[in-house]
Amino acid sequence: MTTTTDFAAINDRAEERRVRRERWLTRITQAATWLRVLGLGWLVPLLRIAAGDSPRHQLRELWQQLGIPVIGIAAFVAAWAVLAPTVETSLGTIPGPAQVWEQTGGLWADHLRERDKEAAFMERQERRNAKLVAEGKADQVKWRGYTGKPTYIDQILTSLKTVALGFLVATLVAVPIGIASGLSRTVSGALNPLIQIFKPVSPLAWLPIVTMVVSALYVDASDLFPKSLVISAITVTLCSLWPTLINTALGVASVDKDLMNVGRVLKLPTWKTVTKLVLPSALPLIFTGLRLSLGVGWMVLIAAEMLAQNPGLGKFVWDEFQNGSSSSLAKIMVAVLTIGLIGFLLDRMMYALQAAFTFTTNR
Questions:
Q1: Considering only 45-49, 99-103, 174-178, which range has the smallest mean pLDDT?
Q2: Bridge-partner residues for 92, per DSSP?
Q3: Is the residue at 248 inside a domain?
Q4: How many whole angstroms separate alpha carbon 126 and alpha carbon 358?
Q5: Which residues are 89's β-sheet partners?
Q6: Any transmembrane segments, and where (predicted)?
Q7: 193 pLDDT band (50/70/90 cuts)?
Q8: Closest Cα partner for 39 from 65, 62, 18?
Q9: Burial level of 232, CB count in 10 A (0-12/13-18/19+)?
Q10: What distance in Å separates the CA atoms of residue 235 and residue 342, rounded to the nearest whole number?
């Protein structure tokens, strides 16, 4: 027979479960923003269901966050698989998803084989040098780097290095000029015609000029920054700095005038006015410009690498196009998908930085 004490114990346990559930739901709510920033918003409904929230509402949210995108991707892959064999080109039919996946595995296997060759080369070199030291011929010891062909993974890393260099230079140029333009109508009036003229210029137009200038000035190229990489990076800089410059100027010009007047009343130096008042208020728009610039830079990079022969993804696409083998089309499509996925990840990275440094995260 259930007693009053038993009922009290049952109620206590129920209350404890409720408190625990509320605590977990609060933590999930706090983590939800970051999960959405990282493109993992679909995990939130699953975590809420696991924490004991209403499954009906959360399953509806999961359908919106995950179900519909998955159906869209599946429909695209199905249409690709059905329609691709019907298109005939000079290199054969357009490869379907299966052929592209097969070439993806082949490129990864090539990378692993090349790394094995590198490891074997370094091992032979170490044995030879150890033998020379043992024979008292230490002066004949030589160390050489492995000079094998770059693999697909190496080319991806080269492209990331190039776009990072170009984007960094573009940011260092665009942000200060944008701040000056936003603070001064005179500077803005002087720069605006130049921005409107140079902003639409294609990377294909910049590349010959950049190539000639770099070839004339950058005579002693280093191994870390070869000439082709520098040419590609400068082309990326010239094409990607405009969104950051324009958005920075707009953000600075939009700072609350009352806030600026407070700075004048307190007689703050220009540097403190910029760092304490202007930048915190303009950061959301600055980061929007940075996201746009990074996207533009990544798109420009591929064309720049094709023509500058920088050993990145652009050169990989060009070489496969020139190769004309039966597997070239599939490899080019692997590169296209890789470029798209990396572009998405770079945008998510900038969005995460925007969320970390500002209090607004506008998609």
A1: 45-49
A2: 89
A3: yes
A4: 51
A5: 92
A6: 62-83, 162-180, 201-219, 231-256, 277-308, 328-346
A7: very high
A8: 65
A9: buried
A10: 20
- Together in a domain, 341 and 257: yes
Which one-letter amino acid corresponds to residue 125? Q
Q: Could you give the C-alpha distances from 243 to 44, 164, 240, 300, 356, in angstroms and in order?
A: 33, 16, 7, 14, 21
* pLDDT tens sequence across 2-51: 556 655 665 656 666 666 767 776 777 777 777 777 777 777 787 777 77
pLDDT tens-digit map of 210-242: 999 998 888 877 778 888 899 999 999 999 999
CA distance 158 to 155: 5
Please tell me which residue, 260 or 205, carries the higher pLDDT value: 205
Indicate the DSSP class of residue 150.
P
146 domain-assigned: no
- Name the more confident of 361 and 170: 170
Number of structural domains the chain divides into = 3
By CB atoms closer than 10 A (0-12, 13-18, 19+), residue 191 is: middle
Same domain? 74 vs 212: no
- Write down how long the chain is: 363
Question: Using an 8 Å Cβ cutoff, are 314 and 305 in contact?
Answer: yes
Q: How far apart are CA 352 and CA 33, in angstroms?
A: 10
Query: What percent of the chain clears pLDDT 90, i.e. is strictly above it?
Result: 37
Domain boundary among 68, 85, 102: 85
Say which residue the tokens 């806030």 belong to.
Answer: 259
Catalogue the long-range contacts made by 122-129 (C-beta closer than 8 Å, 24 or more residues apart). Answer: 122/146
What's the token pair of residue 273? Answer: 């006015």
Within a 10 A sphere around the Cβ of 171, how many other Cβ atoms? 21
- Report helix, strand or coil for 50: helix
CA nearest to 96, candidates 357, 286, 330, 361 = 330
CATH of the domain at 226: 1.10.3720.10
Handedness of CA 286, 287, 288, 290 (dihedral sign): positive
